[in-house]
Amino acid sequence: MKAPPPLLPRPEGLFCPAGGYYIDPVRPVDHALITHGHGDHARAGHGAVMATEETLGIMAIRYGEDFSGSRQAAGTGWTDIGDTRVRFVPAGHILGSAQIVIETGGTRVVAGGDFKRGSDPTCADFELVPCDIFISEATFGLPVFRHPPPRDEIGKLIQSVVANPDRAHLVGVYALGKAQRVIRLLRDAGYDAPLHLHGALMRLCGYYNARGIELGPLVAATQDGPRDAFAGQVVLGPPSTFGTPWARRFPNPVISFASGWMGVRQRIRQRGVELPLVISDHCDWPELTQTITEVGAEEIWVTHGREEALVRWCELQGQAARPLNLVGYEDEPE
């Protein structure tokens, strides 16, 4: 008789019967293992939560200290849960992001969560773990997605600031992960002037600083002086604030947005972006296929994104693959 699958898709999320826990459940459950702090993966209201120390800290900032009944910080070693043992290894997505390695009944599963392969000083680099089943995201799971080097994209921003000293540069960044990465890219490129931040970014940036990730001088983007005080300055804020009175205080701003989706012309037009920056915290198509090849799994399970295209690529390589068709996960959450 064929052994039952180690993980089962349910309305709440991926469930491990042998361990009695869910991975990144979208509804409150008794026991949740969380890959990272983005809101579509890390939700409040679970009975017990296990995640990396950084992810637990991020969840406390976003949801309050009582976001779950109990919580356990994942170390670097194995933890026995029911008839499984689990280990958290870096995913390279954002601070604290992890792949969850599960061993049960002689099978090793790696739930990749959201991940990227490029080096990023704001988080630990992706760690490749050979396994029997690899669960891959597919946010940018189409061959058209090929991200340029992030340092080249941030160079475009710096060049535009120099070329437009009378205009503010308003850069759309999500509050967790993207904001801090763009800041570090600017710093590593030699931009050492104070950066002006929307208030929604300040606390998480403070947490990154507290975890040893230096972001340089950051100030709240408040209007304390004349309108032209922000001329020649870089201002970062959530994209959702661009149509609010907060954004209208800046002089003739250059509207920019840092996202993997800025490689899609329709998205650029929809958002009215003048300076698109293709900077993503997810793998592009070559990195997805590279990872699937290198991990050496017998089966690939594909979730949240362009599932069918990546499944089809696997099949053409002679690789067993299936879409999970999970709901509740966004393309590129904040």
UniProtKB/TrEMBL annotation:
Superkingdom of source: Bacteria
Coiled coil: none
InterPro entries, A to Z: MBL, RibonucZ/Hydroxyglut_hydro, Xnuc_lig_assoc
UniProt-listed Gene3D superfamilies: Ribonuclease Z/Hydroxyacylglutathione hydrolase-like
Name the UniProt record assigns to this protein: Uncharacterized protein
GO MF terms held by the record: RNA endonuclease activity
